[in-house]
Design brief:
CATH superfamily of the domain at 8-159 and 191-215 and 260-275: NAD(P)-binding Rossmann-like Domain
Shape: globular
Structural class: alpha/beta
CATH architecture of the domain at 8-159 and 191-215 and 260-275: 3-Layer(aba) Sandwich
Oligomer: single chain
Length: 291
């Protein structure tokens, strides 16, 4: 018997997952889910097979698709009820005999705060943010499942995602950009095309393990906004000090975590360099695409 033809199932085919599907470029062999019919229609316009999965109840149409999938990429965030995919499709996943590779999009938020120090995958995970606590629990759940089933599992801990349509330029245009100043604060970022590149290559190699995926240069958020404003030729927003800035509770919570995350392991594992190693190259590419 010949090798089974690869079939890719994306749970949560949003911004990053759709970019990865485009990179994999396997016509008629990619299936994705979206939370609602509007999202499904959008995916179908891009010539993908698509089904609704709202995370609240299983869609039985996905049962045979799961059982026939060879590569599963999961990007749906967990919540207080746990991991929606595992909760609603555990039985089908356990029955599936063709799965060759699992990929879970997690977050570097699972590390918690490291006071601006450089860390790698060996750093202790001590998240305080509830969303990151849920993510770490989901990671552990999928690790246990993959070990039990004997399936390679790749966990990609993603930094803040940006790219065309989701960058500092859009925030400047909408008036939502802020230059928040907090001493020594940095954030880690990753361009969506680099997520796509890594997912495609990792799927091809069936890479397993836990890897950080961020760019080479953690940077203060106000510098990114200023760089984009100067490039676009617009007046940057005024600087605001973190202690007194008008921010939502969620936005403020991101500043509780401060760390410089190394991406050396994933670059070595796949023998690659990033398309956009810093926010400067990433924003320059976005700006040129918009012109």
């Amino acid at each position: 018997m010949g090798e089974i033809e690869a079939k890719y199932l994306f749970f949560g085919m949003g911004y990053a997952a759709t970019a990865s599907a485009r990179a994999i470029n396997a016509p008629n062999r990619i299936i994705g889910t979206s939370r609602n019919e509007s999202g499904v229609k959008n995916l179908k316009k891009q010539n993908y097979q698509a089904y609704v999965f709202d995370g609240e109840q299983p869609n039985e149409k996905l049962f045979p698709i799961i059982e026939n999938a060879t590569h599963i990429i999961h990007s749906i965030a967990p919540n207080e009820n746990g991991d929606a995919v595992f909760t609603h499709f555990q039985r089908q996943l356990e029955k599936a005999k063709n799965i060759k590779w699992l990929c879970y999009y997690s977050t570097i938020g699972v590390y918690g705060n490291h006071n601006g120090l450089w860390i790698d995958e060996g750093a202790k995970c001590e998240p305080e943010n509830i969303r990151s606590i849920w993510r770490l629990k989901a990671e552990q759940l999928w690790q246990e499942f993959a070990k039990k089933q004997g399936i390679p599992l790749l966990i990609l801990r993603l930094a803040g995602i940006y790219g065309n349509g989701r960058s500092a330029f859009e925030k400047l245009k909408s008036g939502k950009a802020k230059r928040i100043i907090k001493d020594n604060q940095v954030f880690n970022r990753i361009h969506v095309k680099d997520i796509a590149q890594v997912t495609k290559l990792a799927a091809r190699q069936e890479l397993s393990g836990i890897y950080n995926l961020c760019d080479d240069e953690p940077a203060p958020p106000q510098e990114v906004v200023l760089f984009a404003a100067n490039m676009a030729g617009v007046t940057p927003p005024k600087e605001e000090f973190f202690a007194t800035a008008n921010m939502s509770k969620m936005a403020r919570s991101f500043y509780n975590d401060n760390k410089r995350v190394s991406n050396n392991a994933i670059k070595k594992a796949l023998d690659i360099e990033l398309f956009y190693p810093t926010y400067r190259q990433g924003l320059e590419a976005i700006y040129l695409d918009q012109k």
